[in-house]
Specification:
The chain is of the alpha+beta class and 780 residues long. 35% of the residues lie in helices and 25% in strands. Strand 20 and strand 21 form a beta hairpin. Helix 8 runs antiparallel to helix 12. The longest helix is centred in the first third of the chain and has 28 residues. The structure holds one DNA strand of 25 nucleotides.
DNA sequence: CAGTGAGCGAGCTTCCGCTTGACTT
């Protein structure tokens, strides 16, 4: 029916654009790529100069058929996919698959979804840029080769179903290396000196001035000597200097920065943020959420200005244009911003509202004036020493963009918090209230969070906005990395205080190294990484992507044939694959820890079929070796001989209860007590190695009581049918299937017949009960 | 559901980037 058919990538985009174009235009979407390398096998014809073998994936067949129909009904086809490598390839695949002719097919691009931009695009169509398409083919083929040649090596040499790839393997490497940096980190201690001085103003009101000594002491002795001197020193204000300082707002959000800020400010995981953002995009509240651009359309800049003028005034407005600094950015879209900047808040779930507000604030702030501060530095001389105390204060003179938005930092360090200073004069003599030397330690590097890993990948130019979240899932699903919490350790530190001419020494403790939702490498992750590092350093090198991107750029510029680029790569890469297959033993990360004092046999750790395992003896020994699984939080890299030997102490006999043995052990679901064939979970505060007979008995009794309370009713007619009390309230259980009790009926008063009636009714409304893993299997 | 750690060795697994649903609890 329509004369013109416009094909874009996203259906939400299609809806918006259709409104801008007249009746003669029908706008539809391709839902991303419609064609890809064949799913099974490498699907690259190596004998035929690396010709890719493409197919329409099954879930896209219906869509392609519909597109074909629409194309047949239209006169002119406009391909409006994004203006980047992937977008150009999408347009080309559409051409190929829909058999579009060059004369009635027009390629158009726009970077922002505004009426002007789209009408302008319609006026200057071009043809498909085949060089850019070739760059995409090179990228696609290279990734397939790397992934499908490396992974099988891992299946053979380490464990089946593992994977490797240009992006994921680098992500794992970052985490493994960081963990090793942390393990080998040796903190260096020093003594930090702070002085609290008393100051009287004109009216005689007393206030305090906090200052820090400019240098630290390496040893306790030096700190002590310093305090000795302070006993009879005079402290005089030597200098007061005031300096204006400024702070500028950050650029509007990209995918990566949105993920980081949403994690810090709202506590969302990377994938959570993307799901919420998708909702906001689909409801028309924000622009596209997968972008590497910090650019705002002129329309957005103007409306932001109007908005700022209306709620804050002229002084607060400053139009800014940001340019990207990230490597490999392709900038096919705008930054992530509210579609309508006059909407301060939106309708939706709590999470959607929160994320929207974050985006609104960040966008608005980016168009606001700098915040202005006045920084005051006061230096205090010590009469008998060349050391100097310095107090720093900062006063906000003009809030500027801080009126709406303050960016969070990963390492919130309030040690250096700057405050307002009391009024001061040069040459004033300050009596001290106390001077404290505190032992401090250098800090180990921080483990990655999901969001900080994304930032690092972006910095290295590895991965794209659409793949950050999936990459993080992949490395966790493969068992290379775990998101976990870690309890901190207590550390002792000393402090010396000088109060009223008396020096006192104190022993203090602090908890350090507490981690929440951080990424830890697993043993498999470490072994896979080391293997790849040994044989394929060229691929998991941090610069590999940057280097191949340079080649792809040459291809896109028409200066290099894509097949030549791939050939050059493959001639170097494939021999490494062959070499690693032929010249390596199986890698299980084995480490010998020492000898078992009881048997004199060697104790070792390695990756077994079911995960990390400790072993006493050798497989070649006459007697079979003993095995024990390694506990969660332990690693084959760091476990000590003592810790490994501990593992063999379980299962252990705790004692007897009702003439039956009680056995303590650690199973798949944590520590437990087994008694007479039943399992009782151990609470967190009880150690299976130390739990006593009495404690075990009380656990068994407690569980029995809870189970007794669980049963509301049983029936003589059918012992398998029971009315039970569960987590979500009372329910009926029969043959391992549970049924909801209607609110109109009281569970205590149900008769056997009532129950059967409920089962009958519920059973028809709900389909056959599926296993826990049914959904998972289907997903595949 | 709380175990396993050798073995016949079939037949399978896997990449990165573009896009959204269609399934249940």
């Amino acid at each position: 029916m329509g004369k013109n058919l416009v094909i874009v990538e996203s259906p939400a985009k299609a809806k918006t654009i259709e409104k801008f174009l007249g009746k003669d235009f029908q706008v539809t979407s391709s839902f991303g790529h419609i064609r890809d390398l064949k799913k099974n096998g490498i699907s690259i014809d190596f004998k035929n100069n690396y010709t890719p073998i493409y197919e329409v994936p099954t879930d896209k067949k219906k869509l392609v058929a519909e597109l074909k129909k629409k194309v047949a009904d239209s006169e002119i086809i406009w391909l409006a996919s994004d203006e980047d490598r992937e977008g150009e390839a999408i347009a080309w695949h559409l051409c190929e698959e829909l058999k579009l002719s060059t004369e009635n097919t027009k390629r158009i691009v726009f970077h922002e979804i505004t009426k002007e931009a789209i009408l302008h695009a319609i006026e200057c169509p071009r043809t498909i840029d085949l060089a850019l398409v070739d760059a995409q083919q090179a990228r696609r083929v290279l990734d397939r080769i790397v992934g499908f040649e490396l992974s099988p090596v891992l299946w053979k040499k380490i464990k089946p179903s593992l994977s490797a790839g240009r992006v994921q393997s680098v992500a794992v490497r970052l985490i493994v290396e960081r963990e090793r940096e942390i393990n080998s980190f040796v903190p260096i201690e020093s003594y930090r000196v702070t002085g609290i001085f008393e100051i009287k103003d004109d009216k005689g009101v007393l206030s305090e001035l906090n200052a820090e000594l400019q240098n630290r002491f390496k040893t306790k002795k030096e700190a002590e000597q310093f305090l000795e001197k302070c006993k009879d020193a005079t402290f005089t204000i030597a200098d007061i200097s005031k300096k204006p300082t400024k702070r500028s707002p950050s650029a509007p959000f990209t995918t990566s920065t949105l993920q980081q800020e949403a994690a810090r400010k709202l506590g969302y995981s990377v994938s959570q943020t993307m799901m919420i953002a998708q909702k906001l995009y689909e409801s028309g509240n924000i622009t596209y959420m997968r972008t590497d651009s910090v650019n705002l359309s002129s329309l957005a800049v103007n409306t932001a200005k109007e908005e700022i003028l209306s709620f804050a005034g002229e002084k607060y407005s400053k139009s800014r244009h940001f340019t990207t600094t990230s490597k490999g950015a392709q900038e096919a879209h705008e930054a992530i911003r509210p579609t309508y900047l006059n909407k301060h808040t939106i309708e939706g779930t709590k999470q959607e509202k929160n994320l929207y507000e974050l985006i609104w604030k960040r966008t608005i702030a980016s168009q606001m004036a700098d915040a202005e501060m006045e920084k005051t530095t006061v230096s205090i001389n010590i009469s008998n020493s060349n050391e100097k105390f310095v107090a720093v204060g900062e006063v906000l003179v003009f809030d500027g963009f801080l009126k709406v938005y303050m960016e969070s930092k990963d390492d919130d360090d309030d040690e250096n918090e700057q405050k307002m200073l009391p009024p001061l004069k040069v040459n004033t003599v300050l009596p001290y209230k106390k001077i404290i030397c505190t032992e401090r330690f250098t800090q180990r590097p921080a483990r990655y969070t999901e969001a900080s890993l994304v930032r690092k990948l972006e910095e290295l130019g590895i991965g794209r906005p659409s793949t950050y979240a999936p990459t993080i899932s992949t490395i966790q699903n493969r068992g290379y990395v775990e998101k976990a919490d870690k309890e901190g350790e207590t550390r002792k530190y000393k402090s010396l205080s000088l109060i009223k001419g008396e020096i006192k020494e104190l022993d203090n403790t602090e908890v350090v190294g507490t981690e929440k939702s951080k990424l830890f490498p697993t043993d498999t992750g470490a072994v896979v990484n080391d293997f790849l590092n040994e044989y394929f350093d060229a691929i998991i090198n941090y610069n590999f992507t940057a280097n191949v991107e340079k080649e792809f750029d040459l291809v896109a510029a028409g200066k290099l044939e894509w097949r030549k680029a791939i050939d050059k790569f493959y001639k170097g890469f494939h021999p490494l694959v062959e070499d690693s297959l032929q010249n390596t033993e199986k890698k299980v990360g084995e480490r010998v820890l020492g000898t078992d004092p009881k048997t004199g046999k060697p104790v070792s750790v390695k990756i077994g079929r079911f995960g990390a395992v400790a072993q006493i003896g050798l497989a070649t020994d006459e007697e079979k070796p003993q095995f024990a699984s390694i506990k969660k939080g332990q690693s084959i890299e760091t476990i000590s001989l003592e810790e490994a030997l501990e593992l063999f102490k379980l299962p252990r006999q705790v004692g007897k209860y009702e003439d039956e043995e009680m056995i303590a052990a650690v199973g798949r679901f944590g520590p437990y007590i087994r008694h007479n064939g039943t399992f009782y979970s151990l609470p967190k505060d009880l150690d299976p190695l130390k739990v006593t007979e009495d404690e075990a008995i009380s656990i068994i009794d407690a569980k029995r009581l809870a189970d007794k309370n669980k049963i509301i009713k049983t029936f003589t007619e059918d012992t398998d049918l029971r009315v039970l009390n569960g987590r979500f309230g009372p329910y009926i259980s029969k043959e391992k299937t549970n049924y909801k009790i209607p609110k109109t009926q009281k569970p205590e008063e149900l008769s056997y017949e009532d129950c059967l009636a409920i089962i009958d009714k519920e059973g028809t409304t709900k389909p056959v009960k599926k296993g826990k893993y049914a959904a998972k299997a289907k997903k595949k």
